[in-house]
Amino acid sequence: MSASPPAPLPTVRTVSDLRAQVAAWRRDGLRIGFVPTMGALHEGHLSLVRLAGTRADRVVASVFVNPTQFGPNEDFDAYPRDEARDAGLLAGAGCALLFAPSVGEMYPPGASTTVTVAGVSEPLDGQARPGHFAGVATVVTKLLNQCQPDVAVFGEKDFQQLAVIRRLVRDLDIPVEIVGGPTARADDGLALSSRNAYLTEAERPVAAKLNAALREVLTKVRAGEPVEAAEQAAVAALLAAGFRQVDYVEARVPDTLERVGPGPANGPVRVLGAAHLGRTRLIDNIGD
Amino acid sequence: MSASPPAPLPTVRTVSDLRAQVAAWRRDGLRIGFVPTMGALHEGHLSLVRLAGTRADRVVASVFVNPTQFGPNEDFDAYPRDEARDAGLLAGAGCALLFAPSVGEMYPPGASTTVTVAGVSEPLDGQARPGHFAGVATVVTKLLNQCQPDVAVFGEKDFQQLAVIRRLVRDLDIPVEIVGGPTARADDGLALSSRNAYLTEAERPVAAKLNAALREVLTKVRAGEPVEAAEQAAVAALLAAGFRQVDYVEARVPDTLERVGPGPANGPVRVLGAAHLGRTRLIDNIGD
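The joint structure predicted for all components is written out below.
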């Protein structure tokens, strides 16, 4: 039995309209959840919206492809955009309001403030994508201050991003609870990602080997094998499988993203990887 | 006729206690004003508290000597601290709550996020005190998020700081109104400052010449004289009067702190100066 088609999703494009709606809900004593996205939504995003719905009375989602978190040679222009489709999916997942600002609304002339997070944003994608996390930290600070939700949900798929956001929310005393949502995956283990749309038919089965390689590292590290050898074997396996370039495969301490020692790991471990398959850069991570 | 002595000022030392009091006031529909200070209060600070009182139902003041805005060779350790005196003065000016956190409450282990403001924070004190405005921008972002006031008042005495704060509040969408309060002065024009306490008896009359020199520049610029010559004459006058070093005397556009053109200035002008007299660094600014 199929559900009836959802009503069109109320959409605001200015901070002022966003705040007016949130303020009206607050006057009614309602709790606000928030799911920031860059659109091109898939089941992973929708699971975050549903998770926010279990923690709040009204869920706001934003769709904003943030130019400041893309490097000069990255895919800002090519990034998939389809607001009507996104709005329909959000409504179906229980979202109550879409915030879809323009670049000009987010960065008016003269904007010149940047939020940077030392430590947790420096390794991994911080090395591979210079400036990326400053762009993320700044836009997330803005979005949280614009919406002022009680709770905001971010995907564990972008595990380092989640760690950066947890850190900046604590450090800047932003009054919001940050919740991480588990990574949604295809049957073969591939993490759902808007960038999977770039994969060719031939690349698609190869893409799943990133997740398999990370699992292999986690299994070995848990079995007491040396960390660095496990990481290097994974890199070799990915290159052999057809990945063009591996930015990193590394076992890290989940909260701080510091390296785990060279010997057997005792505490919690997260294995993170980033690799290029054709023109697509894929990232994934797993833990236990 | 003297007023009766004010009751002891309620004081909180944790963000959690601060928020509990502010939330209680909010439940009663009250509007919150906030005046962040580094203590060592004088009439200038108290005028800001009274100004906040005209814009809000309850005024919170913070006293926190923020280590991250002092350079390694600056006066963090020597900066005057007398909380009991400050609390009495605040109560007398109508302040309802003092927030006096420890350094550990403000910067717990692991804190690693910095707010930087390009442009307006770069010239003048941005050159003379590297890192100063990043320290200011970060702590003010924290304080505003901790207190969540409707309105926050900062002194025009620290004119560049006020411009940096206005910029970051806009850029990070912090939901607060920023109000500048006019500079309080001694009869001879010396801007009131906690650092005036460092002046010797012999230096005190010389200190007032900083304000006089800035006024002279403003008068000349308004009369159509070349800006740079007016600035240079002021620097020479200050050195001749006994100042040890002049960091800058410059006419700037008030909002952006960009240079005014070399010819006659048409738009608004602010003249800012910083100079060292003995072991005291003084700053001042005037406009029209």
